[in-house]
Amino acid sequence: MTTYCLEPTTRKSPEEDERAGFFLFPVLRSISISRNQDPSRVAIHSFGKTRRLRIEMVQPGLMRGRGNLRNRARLPFRPRSFLPRHPFDLILCESSFPRVKPLPDDTNFTNALMQRNSDLTPKPQEQTAILNLVNKIQAVLDNLVVAPGSFESCQLEEVRQVGPFKEGTMLTKENVAEIVVILKTLPTKEAVEALSHKLKEELQKQDPNEFLKFTLNEQGFDVEGNAAVVRILIATIGLNLRKLEPDLHLDAKIMHSHHAAIRHSRWMEENAHHSSIKVLIRLLRDLRNRFEGLQSLTQWQIDLLAHSSIMNNPSRQTLPINIAFRRVLQLLSAGLFLPGSAGITDPCESGSNRVHTSLSLENQDLICLTAQTMLRILAHGGYKRLLCLEPGRMNLNDMSVWDGVVVSPLEKAYERPADKKEDEDMEAEGGEEAMETTEN
């Protein structure tokens, strides 16, 4: 390939290809360029006997590479658009994979799930205790909304029940109910304390012999009775959220989370009223409490996961509890809550926010490998130990044998990078020592 400093004539071939920069020139005449002139140079590259030429404009002084320009103009960088993908789900594409064998008999597994749900359901005494305390507190707070009277420390806008107690998915020995109190005024720490004193005073008027313990915290305050606890979660109206000051008021992030809890409670009340969804939520909460790898899952993520596993199918009919429980582990094992997955879109937030993006990468990987180990144990008949129906504590980090099959713990695919704080501290110490030596 030979490079010339040439100037093409105005005669051009009709086969000119402007997009690729190729031209066919029947006549070329050379020109002379003096040092005083500063014209653009035309690099002509000959291609074969057809004299097909490629024209490149070259600025004076630029270095040339192997048959191309090193400093050639490049197209602007365009980031690749993110296309989330849903993991493989046999329920959604069952028609494409016809069965060659009939479904296995899951009667024993279904009975085990229902037995575990019965064990997790609060006893009538527990339900009565928590219900009585909630009704008393709700009545006092509703009265403060309608007729505050001489109470002027704060003004109440709305009182809403949220959480597992409202949804009907409360576990036994976890008699905790949550009530969100929305204030018209700014949520100062003094106002929250005054509200707790007012509530205590009104409850003691109703039953002087009842012992109630009030404890202030960063979310509001707790009312603890003999057999139940009611958490009062403080929030404020939307106009006041921008006026919050960290030194005087409660944290703004906590206020937003309490408003989100109200939206979640309303959505569950409208869309997840089926009993199978509540049973699956209770079973998944039990797994989260007993296995460390699932403890990073939030209550809202478990609610949406249970609802999607039961209702998200081509027929839009509720799936049996045994199929839905196995489907949850299959989806988590396939990477439903991993980076790049479509996951589950939050129905209570604007946009297409996926609920698993709030988890750290380490927790996403831990949830996936924990579900994979559980699914392997479930596939080989270990559901009784998995559901805690047999004595003995189960540790997924230990090797186990099920029906002659060895199930070994999986290794983490993601390792958290080392923090840079140690290096920064070492550099700071080295700088201080250097300053001391210079001063001495």
UniProtKB/TrEMBL annotation:
Residues 413-423 have a biased composition (Basic and acidic residues). SUPFAM superfamilies: Nucleotidyltransferase (SSF81301). GO terms for cellular component: catalytic step 2 spliceosome. The keyword tRNA-binding does not apply. Keywords: Activator, DNA-binding, Nucleus, Transcription, Transcription regulation. GO terms for biological process: positive regulation of DNA-templated transcription. Residues 413-440 are annotated as: Disordered. One of its GO terms (molecular function) is DNA binding. Pfam families: DZF_C (PF20965), DZF_N (PF07528). It is found in: Nucleus. Signal peptide: none annotated. Residues 80-427 form the DZF domain. Residues 424-440 have a biased composition (Acidic residues). InterPro entries: DZF_dom (IPR006561), DZF_dom_C (IPR049402), DZF_dom_N (IPR049401), ILF2 (IPR052134), NT_sf (IPR043519). It comes from the Eukaryota. This is DZF domain-containing protein.
